[in-house]
Amino acid sequence: MNKAETAISCFKEGFSCSQAVLSAYSDMHGLSRELALKISQPFGGGIAHMGEICGAVTGAFLVIGLKHGRIKAEDIEAKEKTYELVLEFVKRFKSLHGSINCTELLGYDLGSPEGMKLAEEKELFTTVCPKFVQNAAEIIEQIL
């Protein structure tokens, strides 16, 4: 099973999109699956169902940070590399989906009870979101 399939499988288990993406790559970077799931939990549904940045996107950002993030304040090269990869990720994700914003991607405001209900009724979390998870993992594979 490749990383995109691993991420989709995790998502289908009931974890959020951010959890699915980060946990698929965590072992490669010294982070346990359990800790990856905990760290990325708040980012699901566009950050705690606020409909902001898509959780698959924030999960990918965390993967980029795990691989290239700086651990010394003076390591400007690592900081710039991380930012460069995040911007490349965003460019590629937007070219596929037009946005990185959960509300724009799904067409419903997840920050409102009505929007969340409509997204659930339209089964967007099971029909549309897996594609975002898959694409996020595929882009990570390409840029890392």
Structural write-up:
This protein has 10 helices and no strands. The protein is an all-alpha fold and 144 residues long. Helix 2 (17-26) runs parallel beside helix 5. The mean pLDDT is 97. It has one domain. The chain starts with a helix and ends with a helix.
What would a concise description of this structure say?
The protein has 144 residues and is mainly α. It contains 10 helices and no strands. The chain has helices at residues 3-13, 17-26, 33-40, 44-47, 55-68, 76-97, 102-106, 113-121, 124-127, 129-143.
Mean pLDDT: 97
Tell how many strands the DSSP assignment holds. Answer: 0
The whole-angstrom Rg is 15 Å
Query: Structural class of the secondary elements?
Result: mainly alpha
Figure out the total of helices: 10
Query: Could you tell me how far the N terminus lies from the C terminus, measured between alpha carbons in angstroms?
Result: 18 Å
Largest sheet: none
Which shape, going by the Cα principal axes?
Answer: globular
Weakly predicted, low-confidence segments: none
What string gives the helices and strands in order?
Answer: HHHHHHHHHH
Helix content: over 70%
Structurally, how many domains make up the residues? 1
Oligomer: single chain
Residue share in β-strands: under 5%
